């Protein structure tokens, strides 16, 4: 079982940050959109695994209890930190259109067999682990960002990579099959990408950068350049569809290295073993 440490991030999120906290308007809008989705999404992940644990035999519950407790602790901390981040966005006039749409879909999923919720959680966790791997592989993206915000994003990325196996393993323990897993990834891919694009566009519109040529250039460079997010991450995303895939096959050395070298930015408050 994975050893998951719950960490308190030691950064100041009370002091406001500027609307353009990243030098590239598209990157700021994109990352803001991601943050807007996290509190709702992470609560769904927490609720899904709590329901799943109750559905497992007692012997299997004991096997996963410590790891799931660590997973829940990490996700609850992410939810809290991004809620603080999002409060600053709200004060700046940004409107979160993504969360209400997500809540409606979540309400439908929660009426189904718990395996559907866990399949959706596992698929989304693979998405976040893929994004995490790309962020950690491209430290230059956040090099000129305020240290407190850079630490927020890379801490979150590192923990997403760290607990990437948990929901997947619970799905298998519930008897989830490959067909359901792939179907969930297709749905998650569609809704996550379309919602992310819509919210990013909304953010750019509010900020006044939507129709600027520099925004288009930044979007292309960030997403589709040779080292861009979409081109670099496609292979890792696609591996999820392989019948023999497991998240542990993906390298987590960058996340482990970041957590090891940035221990001054957080305080462990709990641990599973």
Structural class, judged by helices and strands? mainly alpha
Taking the sheet with the most strands, its summary is: 2 strands, antiparallel
Tell me the number of structural domains. Answer: 1
How many strands in all? 2
CATH fold node name: Ribonucleotide Reductase, subunit A
How widely separated are the two ends?
7 Å
Provide the low-confidence segments as ranges. Answer: none
What is the general shape? Answer: globular
| Helix percentage range | 55-70%
Q: Provide the CATH top-level class.
A: Mainly Alpha
Strand order across the biggest sheet? Answer: 1-2
Q: How large is the share of residues in beta strands? A: under 5%
Radius of gyration computed on alpha carbons: 18 Å
């Amino acid at each position: 079982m994975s050893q998951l440490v719950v960490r308190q991030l030691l950064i100041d999120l009370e002091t406001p940050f500027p609307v353009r906290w990243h030098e590239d308007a598209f990157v700021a809008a994109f990352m803001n959109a991601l943050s807007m989705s996290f509190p709702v999404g992470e609560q769904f992940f927490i609720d899904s695994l709590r329901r799943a644990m109750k559905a497992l035999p007692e012997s299997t519950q004991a096997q996963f209890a410590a790891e799931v407790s660590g997973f829940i602790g990490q996700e609850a901390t992410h939810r809290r930190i991004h809620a603080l981040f999002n409060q600053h966005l709200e004060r700046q006039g940004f409107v979160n259109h993504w969360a209400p749409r997500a809540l409606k879909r979540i309400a439908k999923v929660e009426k189904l067999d718990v395996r559907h919720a866990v399949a959706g959680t596992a698929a989304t966790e693979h998405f976040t682990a893929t994004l995490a791997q790309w962020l950690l592989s491209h430290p230059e993206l956040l090099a000129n960002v305020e240290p407190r915000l850079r630490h927020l994003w890379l801490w979150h990325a590192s923990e997403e990579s760290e607990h990437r196996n948990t929901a997947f393993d619970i799905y298998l323990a519930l008897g989830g099959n490959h067909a359901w897993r792939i179907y969930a990834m297709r749905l998650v891919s569609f809704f996550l990408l379309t919602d992310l694009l819509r919210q990013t566009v909304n953010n750019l519109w509010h900020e006044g950068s939507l129709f600027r040529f520099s925004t288009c250039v930044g979007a292309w460079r960030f997403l589709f350049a040779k080292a861009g997010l979409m081109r670099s991450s496609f292979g890792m995303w696609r591996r999820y569809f392989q019948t023999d895939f497991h998240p542990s096959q993906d390298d987590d050395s960058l996340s482990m290295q970041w957590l090891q070298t940035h221990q001054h930015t957080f305080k462990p408050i709990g641990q599973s073993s």
